[in-house]
């Protein structure tokens, strides 16, 4: 990484615009002596904030355990899995779900209109959806 000389008022902007994992090294001009404490405080705040974010990301990852769902359609019919999270998306090359099947979900993705959830099967077989406008609820969370 390379060092550069920045005016003190630009340092906060550089720190706030850094992407996760990027490092910033800057040298304040000697005329900014009175702002060195403020710059050091800004760097310390950013370091503390990054530390809190890393703990939050770890907690989020640990909590993202697969959840149990059951396929319970109003009519007895199989549900073909999709290879993408779209109702009309291409069918996955996998066995469908049958009424009463319990399956593990690793991701729940809301549709763009927020009216349904796309469910990624934890075993990697594909995606299903929790409801459809006509038939209604197809899948229910078990836990």
What do you see in this structure?
- Helix 1 runs parallel beside helix 2.
- The protein is globular.
- The chain contains two helices and nine strands.
- The two termini are 48 Å apart.
- Strand 5 and strand 6 (127-129) form a beta hairpin.
- The protein is 26% helix and 23% strand.
- The chain has a five-stranded antiparallel sheet with strand order 6-5-4-3-9, with no helix packed on it. The protein has a two-stranded parallel ribbon with strand order 1-2.
- The chain has helices at 8-16, 36-63, and strands at 4-5, 26-27, 67-71, 102-110, 117-121, 127-129, 131-132, 136-137, 139-141.
- The protein is of the alpha+beta class and 143 residues long.
- The longest helix is centred in the middle third of the chain and has 28 residues, at 36-63.
- Number of separate helices: 2
Shape: globular
| Largest pleated sheet | 5 strands, antiparallel
- Classification by helices and strands: alpha+beta
Average pLDDT works out at 74
Strand content: 15-25%
- H/E element string? EHEHEEEEEEE
Widest sheet: strand ordering = 6-5-4-3-9
Bin the helical content. 25-40%
**Secondary structure: number of strands:** 9
């Amino acid at each position: 990484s390379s060092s550069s000389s920045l005016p003190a008022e630009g340092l906060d902007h550089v720190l706030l615009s850094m992407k996760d994992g990027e490092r910033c090294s800057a040298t304040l001009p000697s005329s900014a002596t009175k702002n060195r404490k403020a710059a050091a405080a800004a760097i310390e705040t950013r370091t503390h904030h990054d530390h809190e974010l890393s703990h939050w990301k770890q907690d989020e990852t640990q909590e993202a355990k697969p959840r149990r769902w059951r396929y319970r359609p109003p009519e007895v019919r199989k549900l073909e899995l999709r290879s993408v999270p779209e109702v009309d998306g291409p069918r996955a090359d996998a066995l469908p779900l049958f009424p009463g099947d319990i399956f593990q979900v690793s991701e729940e993705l809301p549709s763009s209109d927020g009216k349904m959830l796309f469910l990624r099967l934890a075993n990697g077989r594909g995606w299903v959806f929790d409801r459809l406008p006509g038939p209604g609820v197809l899948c229910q969370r078990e836990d």
